[in-house]
Design brief:
The protein is of the alpha+beta class and 173 residues long. It is built from 3 helices and 7 strands. Strand 4 and strand 5 form a beta hairpin.
């Protein structure tokens, strides 16, 4: 396993629609391991392949945040929301590609998601609460959408400018 660099917004790769994973290979399994390690190290609760510069439809997540909770790492390949509730939830979202910036985003409070597991079998699960927010946020990444795209233009531009400044500072360091 290896830590991967996380792309920081603005980066054109974060705005691209990703390609479906054609088959589960050793490279895909290695990517899943690397993404989980990178996510936990960051630390974060979700990470999408384009955030580590891989343009494939794959996400990882683990929303078990309590210290005494058993980790529940999940790898979702070619995930898609197949049902969403009419009820809505608002969560303060953040993103590993937009460090230290948070904003309230409204999304369906429950979603059913289908995906391929690393075993190649189709899986389906209903997510709610933080899990629902996280899986929708990560699937958005696969479609080139960031949480700041839900914000008003002025707030989005302000965050983008902060990220540009951060990237300049990191480049000089």
């Amino acid at each position: 396993m290896a830590l991967r660099n996380i792309l920081i917004h603005p980066d054109p790769r974060l705005k691209k629609i990703t390609d479906p994973v054609a088959e589960i290979t050793d490279d895909v399994r290695r990517l899943a391991d690397d993404m989980l390690e990178t996510m936990y190290d960051a630390p974060g609760i979700g990470l999408a392949a384009p955030q580590v510069a891989v343009m494939s439809r794959m996400i990882v997540m683990d929303c078990e945040k309590e210290d005494d909770a058993t980790p529940r790492p999940m790898v979702l390949i070619n995930p898609q929301v197949v049902w969403s509730s009419e009820d809505r939830n608002v969560y303060e979202e953040g993103c590993l590609s937009i460090p230290e910036q948070y904003a309230e985003v409204e999304r369906p409070s429950e979603v059913d998601v289908e995906w391929l597991g690393l075993d190649g079998k189709t899986q389906r699960e209903r997510f709610d609460g933080l899990w629902a927010t996280c899986v929708q946020h990560e699937i958005d990444h696969l479609d080139g959408k960031l949480f700041i795209d839900y914000l008003r233009p002025l707030k989005r531009q302000m965050i983008t400018r902060k990220m540009q400044k951060l990237k300049r500072e990191r480049a000089r360091a």
